[in-house]
Amino acid sequence: MRRREKFVFAATLLSLGLLLIQYFGVEWRYWAFAIFMITTYFVSAWALTDDLQPHEWLTILPFPALYAGSVSLFYFLLPSAFLTRVLILALFGVGMYGLFLTSNIFSVAKGRTIQLLYAAHAVGLFFTLFTSMLFTNAIFSLKLPFYTNGVLVGLIHFPLILMSLWSIKLEPLISRAIWSFSLLLTLLLIELVILFSLLPLPAWHVALFVMGFLYIGLGVLQSQIRERLFQNTANEYSLVAIFLGLIFLILFPWK
Questions:
Q1: SS3 category, 55
Q2: How many CA atoms lie within 13 A of 96 on its CB side?
Q3: Helical spans, DSSP H, in 48-61
Q4: What are 135-171's pLDDT values in tens digits?
Q5: What is the rounded distance in angstroms from the CA atom of residue 95 to the CA atom of residue 6?
Q6: Its pTM surpasses 0.85
Q7: CA 212, 213, 216, 222 torsion-angle sign
Q8: With contact defined as beta carbons under 8 Å apart, do 65 and 38 qualify?
Q9: Residue 137: what are its φ and ψ, rounded to 5°?
Q10: d(CA 211, CA 185)
Q11: Rg for the chain (alpha carbons), in Å?
Q12: How many helices (H) and strands (E) in the chain?
């Protein structure tokens, strides 16, 4: 089976798996979620096995699994309308196929520069932010204690940040700088999430604020890794941060 055929087959199989988990009862819902993430991890390993290196089991394969997990949690929160669920299934399958293509580019581009790598970085950032938004919304929709929100958001975002920063240079080993940057940004996100947990904000607003903060943090750190953190770059992200702060003030429930 050719590589793209494997991607199509894997994306279709996982879409059917997403459809299947809606038939689990409430008491089995989170078990189904966990099994679906694990299944996605190993299905992705099979789909990407041609160029997969040992360290990429940690830097590439968790990405499709986290994306699948975020969509499956969001899928549970959707209304039971048939067309809505079919649309989400279709978008999930297309997104999974695109994520396989992106992961494959990261896998084959190591040690050399290819033109598609720039597009892969853009797509990878989109999926990182999208996965973050869905997970954060799902976590805050559960109305958990503030410390539980912080722990869950940290556990989800650390691998997302690690993979996003590693993909900039695609080194055969994860450097100490990548580990340090990933841990720093994760801790900042945890502190932000704990703060939001103490405020009466809707789950979607929190998810969007966290996604915006993640976008700024990843943008700055990726520029630093590329050694291109110039003054104009810093100014651009500063303007985004100011805009995000203004939106927060506007949406804040002052009453």
A1: coil
A2: 36
A3: 56-59
A4: 999 999 888 999 999 999 999 999 999 999 999 888 8
A5: 15
A6: yes
A7: negative
A8: yes
A9: -60, -45
A10: 12
A11: 18
A12: 10, 0
